[in-house]
Structure formats: C-alpha cells, structure tokens
Design brief:
globular; eight-stranded mixed sheet; about 375 residues; alpha/beta; single chain; six-stranded mixed sheet; binds flavin-adenine dinucleotide; about 30% helix; about 25% strand
C-alpha cells in the first residue's frame, strides 16, 4: 500500500523546519523535501538573526511575539543553546521627519501593548556608547526584541523534528503535482512521487515557481540583500541599531553585536536588485562601512571577517502570504516572508498548524486578513 503523510512541506528553511517540528510534535506524519543537501541552506543561513515584535501591524506583532516566546525559552524547552540574546532594537533619529515617524509608530505599538519607548540622546548613549551624538534627536528602544543564531536554531529545530518522527528528503527537488478536481493528489520530485493529505509551499525564493506548478500565481520575487560579520570583540553594544536614513546606493541599514561579540550587519540596496545571484559585490562593504562608521565612529576599529549575499522573498506589500489556497482545498502557502522569515518562523509554524487543523485562535482571522489569507 502506498504511504501517505499528513503533510508534505516543500522547503526545509526558516519556515519549513519549524513547521515540521510543530506538526511532528503533535504526532502528525510529516515529509519535508528540499533541493539542497541539509536544512537551512536556502535563505535561512543568510539571515543575520534579528528578531523583533515591534512591527506596525497586529498580525506581525502577534506572530512575532509568539516567536520570541519560543526563541527565548528554546534552551529550557529543548536543551540547545541558539544564542538567544534579549538585546532589544533601536531606531535612532537624526531628522525631524524620522523622529515624527518613529514617535507616531511608538503610539501605535504602545496601543498594541508593546514595550517600546522613546529615549533622549543621552539616555540612548548609555545603551549604545559610541553612537554619533551630532544631530541625534533620540531613539526608540524596545528591550524585549532580540537576536539568535539562524544556523543554531534551524539545526536544533531540525533535530527535534526528526526525533519526533518527521522525515526529510534532501537533494530532492519538487518538479510538479498531480491534481484531481480541486485537490493535490501527489507531489512529484526528480526522485519519486509522494502522497499526503495536505501540502505546504515553504519554498522561499522559489515559492512562485512551486505555486505555479499547481497553476496558482503568487507575487513572490527574490530581492537581493548583502550582509557581513566582524571578528569577535568584548561586548560594547546594547540594542540592534536600525538607521532609517538613505545613503548612496542604499536605504536603511542595521547592525548589532551577537552573543559571541561579533558585529553583524545588513543593508537594503536602493534601487532593489532583483534575482537569485548569490555572488557578493565589491560595492557593498565600502558603502556600508562608511555608513556604520558615520553613525558609530568606533566601529572603524573592527575587522570584517566575511560578507555574503542572499535574497528576501519579497511581496509587493511587504506582508507574507499565509493560508489555504481557495483553488485547491489541501494546498497551503507560507511564503513571501520578506526580511522577516527567521523572526516569524516559529509563530508561523503554529499558525499553519491551526489553519490545517481548522482549530483557530480568536486572533487568527485578523492575522490572516493581513497575511493575504486566501482561505
Ligand atoms: C542578508 C539577509 C539578512 C537577513 N536578515 C534577517 C533577519 O535578521 N531576521 C529575519 O527574520 N530575516 C532575515 N532575513 C530574511 C530571511 O532569511 C528570510 O525571510 C527567510 O529565510 C525565508 O524563509 P523561507 O523558509 O521562506 O525560505 P528559505 O529559508 O530560503 O527556505 C526555502 C527552502 O525551499 C527549498 N526549495 C525551493 N524550491 C524547492 C523545490 N522546488 N523543491 C524542493 N525544495 C525547494 C530551498 O532549497 C530552501 O531551502 C535576511 C535575509 C537576507 C538575505
């Protein structure tokens, strides 16, 4: 008799791995398929590990708050250190306009019950000594946000999923589906054919191609971003710094010191660079180094170890696409995570479980409205 799973997850990345853990923990039979040789080898390992719940939309806030609960308790729940650090986020403002935008946002976030406040320049300097005080008008500070290692978290989650019984097939690519009426009846790969009650697209940068195999168009496009990491030094930084100002060839950029003392940094190119080219450019480091030294001059003493390039799986409105597809009753999407797939992952995993089992929480309809639920 042919084997059939409760769910097949396409993609073992920031979303697919926690989804597998969640379903396997709940005693569902899970098969995860990924083209690459091991978990987290797509965009997951490109993420710099920033985790925040201080968004402007209730759906993202709720999902990220749940993720933070999971990340921050991971070690006591599962025994593995994922380098969670509750270092917080900060958005310093150097222009009147940015100060107004940030203060207006704080009001909204406080209405949602978030722990975020406005600091004077002097208060902010106490958290991030070395910050350039010239023209600094103050900063937001959200102490409950934090950071963790995507490499360690996804590996740990993968081993938990496998221990709970999830099966993983690596070096195997999904190439099509068999469809009867309004159901996916099988998933075809370059190596075999698999059957399951439900199928989840968690294919990151390739989510549009996978969805197209089921005849459904979704607007997810890979948008290149580069990042880098310095050699470790003694702890000197408090919260993540997000500089909203535009610079040459770039929009915002952000950096923080991780639990090993390494400053990790990332920048948003302007104009965007679309596509899946992973070759690091020679322009990124000179551009971001100048910007980082301008906002925190002491960073000039750090040595950069390496840079890399990856993609945000972008949607036109910056919101993920999560939910059941109305065209096919057993096909689900958890895609278009943009620059937030790592921080949303564990919360999205629980949400997907509730969607598939139709055992919704009271907040889910509102979350799904914003997450383009097509159910
Ligand atoms: C430089 C950079 C910095 C970032 N920093 C952060 C950060 O600080 N915080 C944060 O939250 N996010 C960050 N991100 C974004 C984050 O990395 C992504 O949002 C997240 O990894 C997307 O998760 P995913 O599971 O959708 O995709 P992925 O993690 O890429 O997983 C998708 C998987 O699907 C597989 N796949 C695709 N097609 C197929 C197929 N046909 N068959 C089988 N397998 C397939 C791929 O091989 C891949 O392993 C950053 C991204 C970059 C590039």
């Amino acid at each position: 008799m042919k084997k059939s799973y409760d769910i097949i997850v396409i993609g073992a990345g920031s979303i697919g791995v926690p989804v597998a853990t969640e379903f396997a923990k709940k005693r569902q039979s899970v098969l995860v398929i990924d083209s690459l040789p091991s978990p987290g080898q797509g965009q997951d390992k490109k993420a710099i590990g920033g985790i925040r719940a201080t968004h402007s939309d209730k759906g993202k806030i709720l999902v990220s708050q749940r993720s933070i609960e999971i990340f921050s308790h991971w070690k006591e729940m599962y025994g593995d250190d994922i380098q969670w650090r509750s270092n917080g986020y900060s958005f310093p403002a150097y222009t009147k306009k940015d100060e107004k935008v940030l203060r207006d946002l704080i009001n909204i976030q406080q209405d949602f019950g978030m722990n975020i406040k406005w600091l004077s320049p002097e208060q902010y300097r106490e958290l991030n000594p070395g910050i350039n005080m010239e023209g600094l008008r103050g900063s937001t500070y959200s102490p409950e946000d934090g950071s963790a290692s995507p490499l360690l978290f996804t590996q740990s989650s993968y081993f938990k999923a496998a221990a709970y019984g999830a099966e993983f097939k690596f070096n195997e690519t999904v190439i099509g589906f068999d469809i009867e009426k309004d159901r996916l009846t099988s998933v075809r790969t370059n190596r075999g054919v698999y059957h399951s009650a439900h199928v989840l697209n968690a294919a990151g940068s390739f989510a549009k191609d996978v969805s197209q195999m089921a005849g459904i168009h979704i607007p997810v496009n890979p948008d290149s971003h580069e990042a880098g990491i310095c050699e470790p030094v003694k702890p000197f930084m408090g919260p993540m710094v997000v500089d909203m100002r535009k610079g040459r060839g770039s929009k915002n950029f952000y950096f923080y010191q991780n639990s090993e003392g390494q400053v990790v940094f990332c920048m948003t190119p302007d104009p965007p660079i679309w596509g899946i080219d992973n070759l690091a450019t020679s322009t990124f480091l000179p551009l971001i180094a100048r910007r980082m030294i301008r906002i925190m001059p002491m960073l000039a003493n750090l040595k950069v170890r390496r840079t890399w390039r990856g993609q945000y799986p972008m949607t036109p409105d910056g919101f993920p696409i999560v939910g059941k597809m109305k065209e096919l009753e057993n096909f689900y999407q958890a895609v278009g995570m943009c620059g937030q797939g790592f921080m949303l992952g564990p919360g999205i995993a629980e949400l997907i479980y509730r969607i598939v089992t139709e055992d919704y929480d009271s907040d889910d309809p509102e979350i799904l409205k914003k997450f383009r639920s097509l159910s």
